[in-house]
Write a structure and sequence with these properties.
Length: 217
């Protein structure tokens, strides 16, 4: 099968799989990550098929919604690609990307590295920052029934999931714990450039947010 057909069929498969996904991880997230990945790949020497498949399949089954089972995503992707007669080296690479893409806090060690993983990871991170990042964060916070902000709770940068629950931390905390840190974790030059702009937008958003909170603007 030619690559264009494979990508079309992958898009179809992912759309169907994510039909009931929540707002932060729906098909449109995948579509944005796919676009970001193509944009970064344009300036980079890489295997475009692996990049596209990695971007399209990276959230095919999020462990958060499968009782923490981190093997479901890679397994689902592998089964699909085997059914499409994709070569084993491409399948193995895409599966590695899915296994290694996630931001798991500071002490997560990448077991694998490739330019294709770097690109897909940057593409996914770009969708967590900027205006879309702000929207996704508050959408997630709403899903968890969290407050927007609480001036009595000092934002901290290293809050664990358990502490979020225990402290009932507001969504604003997520900026300090993750979103504002992402620009310094970008892998590619293009990713870094786009992240810098989106970072500035988040800083602007936060200063406006605090000003409005105080009623001064
Ligand atoms: P990814 O799928 O990009 O690895 P996650 O699954 O951790 O990221 O998060 C999906 C979206 O939900 C992201 O935009 C992320 O910023 C947001 N999110 C994750 N955890 C929180 C949180 N505690 N508060 C607010 N937003 C969150
Ligand atoms: Ni994602």
């Amino acid at each position: 099968m030619n690559t264009t057909d494979l990508i079309k069929r992958t898009i179809q498969f992912v759309k169907e799989k994510l039909e009931d996904a929540e707002g932060g991880h729906d098909w449109f997230h995948i579509e944005r990550v796919h676009k970001n990945a193509l944009l970064i790949a344009k300036n980079t020497d890489c295997d475009l098929t692996v990049v596209e498949l990695g971007a399209l399949l990276h959230d095919i089954a999020d462990s958060k919604f499968h009782n923490g089972d981190e093997t479901i995503g890679p397994k689902t992707a592998r089964l699909f690609l085997e059914g499409e007669n994709v070569s084993e080296d491409v399948i193995a690479h895409v599966v590695y990307i899915i296994e290694n893409i996630s931001y798991k806090g500071g002490n997560f060690e990448k077991k694998f590295s490739s330019i294709e993983l770097d690109i897909v990871q940057d593409a996914d991170r770009l969708d967590a920052i900027g205006a879309i990042g702000v929207a996704r964060a508050f959408n997630y916070g709403g899903f968890k029934n969290r407050a927007l902000y609480n001036p009595e709770i000092e934002p901290v940068t290293n809050m664990t999931k358990e502490e979020y629950k225990k402290n009932n931390a507001p969504t604003i905390n997520h900026f300090y714990e993750k979103l504002l840190l992402l620009k310094d974790k970008m892998n590619t030059e293009t990713g870094k450039e786009i992240a810098a702009e989106r970072h500035r937008f988040m800083e602007l958003f936060l200063s406006q947010f605090y000003a409005e909170w105080e009623g001064v603007k």
